[in-house]
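Issue 218. Parser rejects a valid record. Input:
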Amino acid sequence: MPLHTGPEKPDERPRAANPFYGEANPVGGMTEAPPQHRLPDGPLPPATAYQLVHDELMLDGNSRLNLATFVTTWMEPQADVLMAECRDKNMIDKDEYPRTAELERRCVAMLADLWNAPDPSAAVGCSTTGSSEACMLAGMALKRRWAKRYADRYPGARPNLVMGVNVQVCWEKFCTFWEVEARQVPMEGDRFHLDPQAAAELCDENTIGVVGILGSTFDGSYEPIAELCAALDELQERTGLDIPVHVDGASGAMVAPFLDADLLWDFRLPRVASINTSGHKYGLVYPGVGWALWRSAAELPEELVFRVNYLGGDMPTFALNFSRPGAQVVAQYYTFLRLGREGFRAVQQATRDVAMGLADRVEGLGDFRLLTRGDQLPVFAFTTATDVTAYDVFDVSRRMRERGWLVPAYTFPANREDLSALRVVCRNGFSSDLAELFVEDLGRLLPELRRQPNPLTHDADAATGFHH
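Output the parser choked on:
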């Protein structure tokens, strides 16, 4: 949630309002709109309030054309109806809404089975507001297990967490909020994510765990989780250090099981202690819902689980948030029930096909060099070719926005700050027809961009936003 400040100037200037907004009488007191930064003196008719808010929101971008976000922007009408029916149910109140709680439990069981937990009935998990909360919970469990193991020197020793520099910002938040040192493996050359051996070399007796990303937000590539576990196995044999792995599968944990079934990344690897995913990304549910699962109760310290009874019944809860709607959890269960394994496979394969086809078309324009091709996550990144000097990726992003397309341009992190790229996230609902329109719009812009004397974007930070 971004932080906001108050208005820079007093809200004294009245805004003209359409007389038709005066619901019963067009001239009945609707010559001015209500203030924007203080409560109005009196109430408005509901239709008037709706129209004022609706009109301002028209200036937002079209979410279906937002190729920056991983978040689901389309669901079936039946899911919309279910979510509307459940938006007033408080997810935390499991005693009052036992069937909603049961659907949450079933989703956890389904994910434990999908991610090959040794004993799905022994795996523990919970829903969250998204992967960020799920990552925080997983990090807390790693830190608490480490602190108990080294109780003789904690809190004197400072714990650390090893990860690639490409991690989602929530991991940096976790380390800051919970006073954990972030040890990041930098990018090198054409490797845009964590190197297993380099990660193992950063570990010591104060390492609470290593984070592996199944689907980097920078370029859509999978990190090599099996190789990471093997490097940590070798480290344990050599030093005795037993370092657990958490897999941040925000996107890939809902893609790989269906499209890359032979890829070893999940609970089949004994060193993987926990996994998270975003139900609202490739779990195909509107925001916000995420999931965190642990291999067994042993990986989730009991003292982190709180029990409350003042809402009726005894409710174990492990969450940073408390009250939140049950609608997204119900929508997740609907999606699991609606698609099943074969349905998910078909949807994710279609999305990957669109991504790979679009990547080929972009490369075929001749002005761009692909960094990834959409063959892991349905996401690809590209930059300008070496002989393109008249414009840069920030110019492309800005000009595509004029056509309604939101395409993030951004600079890569440590050791590859020299590389700037564009990223296209293909989601369910971004069809081959829309991809065709995207390529056509991009192709139309190229003659103008090529005629520029030089790149026109002087402030790259202001040119675009990089959204996970």
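Fixed in the parser; the record now loads. Residues 462-468 have pLDDT under 50 and may be disordered.
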